[in-house]
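Record type: ASSEMBLY
Status: queued
Input:
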Amino acid sequence: MTDIKLHGFWYSPFSMRVKWTLKLKNIPYEDIEEDRFNMSAQLLQYNPVHKKTPVLVHDGKPICESMIIVEYIDQIWPQNPLRPTNAYEKALAVPAIASLVRCSNDIEKENAIEKIKEHLRVVEDQCFTEEKKFFGGDTINIVDIAFGSVVKFLVVLEDAFEVKILEYEKFPHFHSWYNNFKDAPVIKENLPDQDKMVTFLKFFREKILASS
Amino acid sequence: MANEVVLLSTWPSMFGMRVRIALAEKGVKYEYKEENLQNKSPLLLQMNPIHKKIPVLIHNGKPICESAIIVQYIDEVWNHKAPIMPSDPYQRAQARFWVDYIDNKMYDTWRKMWLSTGEEHETWKKELISIFKQLEETLGDKPFYGGDTFGFVDIGLIPFYSWFYTFETYGNFKMEAVCPKLIAWAKRCMGRETVSKTLPDEKKVYDHVVGMKKALESK
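Status: finished
Output:
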């Protein structure tokens, strides 16, 4: 009997990626909610280098970094495969996603929103085709999961900080893709509530500012 | 259609070296274009418009950026020989983790040490040394990070060997004293032609860095 545990945060886009992957493949697992301000001793033992979530523990072996975990799961459990068949598409998307994440983390820095829009622009112009519903074609793949979590986070940021980032007129492909993504069966059931996330993000930001 | 491969890079860049080693391991013929970072070519600006950084691999006209991504892409496309990524999923995940670690920590910490003085400099020096010690611990008693074979993490880290002399001189410490096992590993890697023919001379790197600092300070 395989033993799988996921240490994460309900609000974290990185934990979301792993959850979606596990759910899309119907893999049973134990969800362990960590407290960012009081991480469990177990987590610190599993990820001593970065002390971060998410961490997947498979039969006692820890795997860290969300995209690394997603690819690992996809290799071991091949049902509903997630890896893009197009090596180039993956090579293009992954750095764009990482950049988006970095910019989102520094949202209050000057030009952060401009930078985010620049990255979104590259993807909008180069990564979508009319024929495909998802990056994976008719089904979700690793690129959809990676972007989905970040876009969800951007949508929350828009609400929480009252800024406009993903404007429909400027990013029509992104909009259409995201609408498909968030309505997809497994994703829809595993998307944290928007209001709950906005409230939490505001509280979280206050706490971080207070502790720095 | 012919396989057209172009690499935009600079000779001292550790990240560019990773790509060159990977291409050499696979026996891929490519055109190399040396970039001048003070005067970036129109091709670079077109192929990496957001970051304007090297290395960029251009495969049949399509650009791929970020050295770790490029190396994995090379491994996937030219999969006929010299596998770079481990086949076991768990080992693969570990390999990706460590290259990610090097990317997030190494260069930034070096740069901070390089550009600071006094107490701040000492702090960053300690941090840089602890990063190397961590990497030495991860290697353990294996001949390579890939186990018996040279692989992804080895490719990810070995280019920094050409910068060790520079780190040592600016940091005033000796790598051999701090992490002898890592030095032994590096020499083992240098026994491979793909590595020894790619890495530049460490003194040349140092002179280049001294020049860079002078240029920064004169601004």
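Annotation: The mean pLDDT of chain B is 94.
Annotation: Residues 89-217 of chain B form a domain with the Glutathione S-transferase Yfyf (Class Pi); Chain A, domain 2 fold (CATH 1.20.1050.10).
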